[in-house]
Amino acid sequence: MSTLALSQLGRRTTEPPVSWLMSTALARPNLISLAAGFTDSESLPVDEARELLLEVLGSAKTGRAALQYGTTAGDAGLRRLTGEHLHRQDGASRPAALYSPERLFISSGSQQLLYLLSECLCEPGDLVLLEDPTYFVYLGIVQSHGLACRGIPLAVDGIDLAHLERTLESLKRSGALRRLKLLYLVTYFQNPTGVSAVWEKKATALELLRRYEKAAGHPIYLLEDAAYRELRFAGDDVPSLLIARRAADRVIYAGTFSKPFATGVRVGYGVVPEALLRVVLRLKANHDFGTSNLLQQLMKRALATGAYDRHLRVLRERYARKAAVMVRAIRQHFPARVEWDEPRGGLYVWARLPNHLKSGMKSRLFRAALRHDVLYVPGELCYAPDPTRPKPNQEMRISFGGASVPDIRTGIARLGATLRELLAA
Ligand SMILES: Cc1ncc(COP(=O)(O)O)c(C=O)c1O
Questions:
Q1: Which of 111, 112, 185, 228 maximizes ligand 1 atoms within 8 Å of its Cβ, making it the mutation to test the pocket?
Q2: Distance (Å, rounded) from C-alpha 112 to C-alpha 254?
Q3: 137, 142, 228: which to mutate for ligand 1, most atoms within 8 A of CB?
Q4: What confidence score (pLDDT) does residue 258 get?
């Protein structure tokens, strides 16, 4: 007799490999983790959040409203301010209707939106396209739901469109296009590579999906995950796909206040085609009938008072500095044969190792790094299970988000020493 009476979904939902990375980091105090996707702790807006919460709870009227249940879609004022915030990022000349509160809902972290969409659109055996490599926590959702994947290689400016077209064509030929539900793209300072997609690539990908819808027999959505969009410290912003031609009923935009304000607040948002939004909200009602109202009030005040924008300026400078420290340390300590790109935003550097050197959790490099008391995310964890290619195993994600400046220096020195040791062997 089995010890648990699990559903198929429960059985498919196995422990993610990154849990091991996290528990190892916690269990070994001398270990420097450049693996964690945490944001910078020191700059978390403690004073600002205290002030704002005091304001919210400062009168019986606003306090009671904040401590009561809210609505499933989220606070109307926060949705309006979020829409306006997004509108400003995309450019004030864009039609305001694209950012209307009616198209927008507040989620419990953008992670919840990613989950709800899979639940709402996909059956086990359905297919999603994603970047190769991609955000590995999304792969957990994909696995739980029993979805099939195809990875589309990521270049320095977005996905390989020729590869996307070939994939769509081959799915059409094999009849599998009928199972294709969406293309998932992390378009700004991607996790794990730091790559941002140029406008032309995003817009062409959307057009390509459209062309294959007839053969699919249903809409194919493009999910644009913009989790790191506001953590830009160099270059110009690129508008979201919400402004693309014929985007209104196909593009889903996932945003979050986690990275630009505070990860612990767990407030995210989505702009979703109207007909789909109705279904997403029914599912969200089953999950939690509304994201924490108190924390929504906090975010509403942060946006309304300008505290959010002020904090963001501080944060951008902070990450620019931490990224610069990491870049200098990499230049100093990494062997020249290791390739990497200088980050212009986000939290990550993606390093590509010379041909024969493997980076996976079972590799000599990974074990040697642990001996040197430093941890990175092995690139293999960021590749979807795609039967049409072997998983690449020669890359690593290193983060300047959570580690302190001295730890970034020491961590990179240790990683550099590990790499030299292995390359010399
Ligand atoms: C690419 C990407 N999307 C979404 C999320 C989810 O973030 P949150 O649920 O805090 O909004 C993360 C978190 O690390 C991420 O890296």
A1: 111
A2: 10
A3: 137
A4: 95
User: 99 is written with which tokens?
Assistant: 């950012």
- The answer to whether the beta carbons of residues 112 and 268 sit under 8 Å apart is yes
Strand partners, 186: 225
Spatial contact of 394 and 379, defined as CB atoms under 8 Å apart: yes
Q: Residue 324 corresponds to which tokens in the numbers above? A: 């610069």
d(CA 394, CA 356): 8
pTM for the full predicted model: 0.97
Decide if 187 contacts 199 (C-beta within 8 A). no
Residue 410 Cβ < 6 Å to ligand 1: no
Closest-lying ligand 1 atom to the alpha carbon of residue 225: 3
Ligand 1 and 369: CB distance under 6 A: no
**Ligand 1 pocket residue status of 191, Cβ below 6 Å:** yes
Q: Which of 105, 135, 229, 350 to mutate to test the pocket of ligand 1 (most atoms within 8 A of CB)?
A: 135
Low-confidence ranges of the chain (pLDDT < 70): none
| Angle value at C-alpha 351, between 349 and 354, nearest 5 degrees | 170
Task: Write out the two tokens for 179.
Answer: 């199972």
C-beta separation of 374 from 358 below 8 A: no
Rounded distance, CA 300 to CA 104, Å?
14
Residue with tokens 């999304």: 138
Nearest to 39 by CA among 254, 413, 312: 312
Q: Are 377 and 397 in contact (CB under 8 A)?
A: yes
15, 36, 138, 418 from 192: Cα distances, Å: 20, 11, 12, 21
What does the pLDDT read at residue 243? 97
Within 10 angstroms of residue 368's Cβ, the number of other Cβ atoms is: 17
